[in-house]
Amino acid sequence: MTGTAMTAAPAILPLTVREMSYAVGAARLIDDLTFTLEAGPRTIIIGPNGAGKSLLLRLCHGLLKPSSGTVRWAGGAGIDPARCQAMVFQRPVMLRRSVAANVDFALALRKIAKDRRKRRVAEVLAKTGLEDLARRPARVLSFGEQQKLALARAWALEPQVLWLDEPTASLDPAATRAVETIINAIRASGTKIVMTTHDLGQARRLGDEILFLCKGRLIERAGVADFFDHPQNLLSRAFASGDLLW
Amino acid sequence: MTDFGAAFATAFSLIATLDPGLVEIVTLSLRVSLTAVAIATLISLPLGAAVALFRFPGRGGVVILLNAFMGLPPVVVGLVVYLFLSRVGPLGVLGLLFTPAAMIAAQAILITPIIAALTRQVVEDLWEEYSEQMRSLGAGPRQALWALLWDGRFSLFTAVLAGFGRASAEVGAVMMVGGNIDHVTRVMTTTIALEVSKGDLALALGLGVILITLSVGVTGAAFVLRETARRSYAA
Question: What is the pTM of this model?
Answer without folding.
Answer: 0.86
